[in-house]
Amino acid sequence: MKKSVFGLLNFLLPEHGIMPMHSSANIGPQVDTAVFFGLSGTGKTTLSADPSRTLIGDDEHGWSDTAVFNFEGGCYAKMIRLSAEAEPEIHATTKRFGTVLENVVMDPESRELDLDDNSLAENSRGAYPIEYIPNSSEQNMGPVPRNIVMLTADAFGVLPPIARLTPDQAMFHFLSGYTAKVAGTEIGVTEPEATFSTCFGAPFMPRHPSVYGNLLKERIAKGEVSCWLVNTGWTGGKYGTGKRMPIKATRALLNAALDGSLNDAEFRKDAYFGFEVPVSVPGVDSAILDPRQTWADKEEFDRTAAKLVDLFCDNFEQFADHVEDGVRQCAPKAAIAAA
To answer: Which pairs count as long-range contacts for 14-19, CB under 8 Å and 24+ apart, including other chains?
Structure first.
């Protein structure tokens, strides 16, 4: 039902100049709103439930001239391997009456939960009222955003943990809506598969993608919004060889982006995608900031990166006639790396 309502709002709101978003959102101590776009499994719910920031909502929002506002008033989080250490606010909801758990294994006698048990499904979930998160917004609303974060779980191990995007690059990645499925998430998926879901929510976007893309670009320009691409996927190799990006590092990089300190870092230009990547960030192992250096087989990295570049370019062909040349020029180029 909530996705039906979301689909309806995605049709109606653009007529009123409101940007509907498949995103989470929170507010920082400087009353700075951040919006997190992302598909399932990329960290939308986890990263927006930050004890140092106020949660607006975890999944569906609108962006008007004056505010970012939530559509739901509730949260729907992945439960598999949920950690009290890494995600204390969400983990605590599993102990509260009123939380609805789906595909979660429970001991029938002790009633203890085993969130690491995926025997029922890898995709275990919990639904709970937003007020179960201690620092949630009573109004489910915040000011227009200062930062936009696009989340991806790159199972190919090619994308850096964070990159700074220009407005044109932001529109390119918003229209691309890239992430990757891995084995166990959906029936029939046995190895990493690239997934491109336009605007990070294609099934719920009834209008042409360019409508949402142009709305986003206009709002970025009007508010001078900083844009970031954050990879919560794999490092040191692709899925099956590498390891999942440490959430501690992701949070440290994200905090630096949102508080503005990351803008003072030294950046390099990514050889394949052309966006800017920090060279070093306090509290983060510099090795993971350059994905190629984390791979034991550098030539295999180059082959994998070239494959991902081709997938991005093939997918974006459908939008090429509907965007400005600056956005088209943001397509990744394998030739850059080879030069």
So the answer is: 14/207, 14/211, 14/212, 14/215, 17/64, 17/65, 17/215, 18/62, 18/63, 18/64, 19/62, 19/63, 19/64, 19/212, 19/215, 19/216, 19/219
